[in-house]
From TrEMBL:
The lineage of its organism: Bacteria, Pseudomonadati, Pseudomonadota, Betaproteobacteria, Burkholderiales. Residues 6-120 form the Tetrahydrofolate dehydrogenase/cyclohydrolase catalytic domain. PANTHER family: C-1-TETRAHYDROFOLATE SYNTHASE, CYTOPLASMIC, C-1-TETRAHYDROFOLATE SYNTHASE, CYTOPLASMIC-RELATED. GO terms for biological process: L-histidine biosynthetic process; methionine biosynthetic process; purine nucleotide biosynthetic process; tetrahydrofolate interconversion. Catalyzes the oxidation of 5,10-methylenetetrahydrofolate to 5,10-methenyltetrahydrofolate and then the hydrolysis of 5,10-methenyltetrahydrofolate to 10-formyltetrahydrofolate. It holds the Pfam family THF_DHG_CYH_C. This is Bifunctional protein FolD. Belongs to the tetrahydrofolate dehydrogenase/cyclohydrolase family. Its EC number is 1.5.1.5, 3.5.4.9. Keywords: Amino-acid biosynthesis, Histidine biosynthesis, Hydrolase, Methionine biosynthesis, Multifunctional enzyme, NADP, One-carbon metabolism, Oxidoreductase, Purine biosynthesis. Pathway: One-carbon metabolism; tetrahydrofolate interconversion. It catalyses: (6R)-5,10-methenyltetrahydrofolate + H2O = (6R)-10-formyltetrahydrofolate + H(+); (6R)-5,10-methylene-5,6,7,8-tetrahydrofolate + NADP(+) = (6R)-5,10-methenyltetrahydrofolate + NADPH. InterPro entries: Aminoacid_DH-like_N_sf, NAD(P)-bd_dom_sf, THF_DH/CycHdrlase, THF_DH/CycHdrlase_cat_dom, THF_DH/CycHdrlase_CS, THF_DH/CycHdrlase_NAD-bd_dom. It comes from the Bacteria.
Amino acid sequence: MTARIIDGAALSQKIREEVAQRVAKLAGTGVRPGLAVVLVGEDPASQVYVRNKVAACEKAGLYSKKEQYPASMSEAELLQRIEVLNGDPTIHGILVQLPLPPHMDSHKVIEAIAADKDVDGFHISNAGLLMTGQPLFRPCTPYGVMKMLEAENVPLRGAEAVIVGASNIVGKPMAMLLLAAGATVTLCNSKTRDLGAQTRRADVLVVATGKAGIVKGDMIKPGAVVIDVGINRGADGKLCGDVDFASAREVAGAITPVPGGVGPMTIAMLLVNTVEAAERLG
């Protein structure tokens, strides 16, 4: 059996077209959704992510404002800048690209963003709303994964879902969204004993560790849906995921590729969250 490939690039394109329609509708009321992306420092990967986010905004008709600052910027200066953006009526979403320079407290910076402009969904009040099943903003990557599962008609109610990786950005919010959909969820971390015993139970397996090839084909239940959130660079210089794609696709029922899987969906859902913010804030 060779797994069906879940095409995140095609689905993200469809979502971007829907976003463009919503943007056009808002334009009729005199509102143009605006996203401010703040980048501190020279991290090459962050620069690529920010460039892609800004380009996606402009293509869908959103107003995007990129603010880039040197790594020497003080935390106080960044907090002051966020305060200005919080009060700017042309900005509906604020995204501070992580990681930040070591002298900055990322939790403090994220908490400074107004909760109703926190389109990443990382603010503690948005995390709490998600936890209680009443999300204002769903974090973009888990939200994108849920859209992929929905598009593939994957039955989640009563399904065994296993998540490898317990970060605040992907693992924990992913668990909350899958729980809300009726799945039975197991959340694994770096201290999980016998990881394979956990992953082989999964009808839906989401892997988000940042460790290339941590999940091999023999760790996957035959016919399972495998979502690979990881983006790594292999020894050959090519992008690869956290799942060993070659062995996994021979066992899984459906699988996301890297690149072309979850990555494009993350940006598409950022656009959705920004439009939703504009619809609420006006």
